[in-house]
UniProtKB/TrEMBL annotation:
It holds the Pfam family AHSA1. Belongs to the AHA1 family. Residues 22-159 form the Activator of Hsp90 ATPase homologue 1/2-like C-terminal domain. This is Activator of Hsp90 ATPase homolog 1-like protein.
Length: 161
């Protein structure tokens, strides 16, 4: 399991997940920049993702949906705010309706994903910041920690292939 640390900080409204991968930074970046590769690792294995649009550039937008085992679709979006290829990118991540309009009833997070060499590959740090402790608590209750951990575990198999 590549996840090495999970830190929920209610005072700073952040959830930070750290993972180590046996691949260079450039290889991990490729996963996030290529929607077909990203589909293989975004979301837990039982909720595979389909990326409809993917513009990983400042001001760009990404839309996707995850599909449940019962066939239900759960749409989401990213609004990209900054990119430092291949080291990091920042974006807002939110839930959406079926037409990819933001769902105002569900939390939006501001995220910074960063990738650094760690000697044997890449250390990835995923920091998500929420508007309130309630919003952070809601996504934790929805299973974000377990879902993200199982999603990140898929990266090892992808880079080994």
């Amino acid at each position: 399991m590549p996840v090495t640390d999970i830190h929920k900080d209610i005072d700073n409204l952040t959830l930070t997940i750290t993972a180590d991968f046996a691949a260079p930074v450039e290889r991990i970046w490729q996963i996030y920049s290529d929607p077909r590769q990203l589909e293989k690792v975004w979301g837990p294995p039982e909720y595979p993702a389909t990326f409809v649009d993917h513009d990983l550039s400042p001001g760009g937008r990404t839309t996707y949906f995850m599909t449940s085992p019962e066939g239900e679709r759960y749409p989401g979006y990213w609004q990209i705010s900054a990119v430092d290829e291949p080291r990091s990118f920042a974006f807002s991540d939110g839930f959406a309706d079926q037409e990819f309009h933001p769902d105002p009833d569900l939390p939006v997070s501001t995220n910074v994903y960063s990738f650094t060499e760690n000697g044997s590959g890449t250390r990835a740090t995923y920091v998500s910041t929420y508007d309130s402790a309630e919003a952070l608590g809601k996504v934790v209750d929805m299973g974000i920690i377990e879902g993200t951990s199982s999603a990140l575990a898929q990266i090892d198999a992808l880079v080994a292939a």
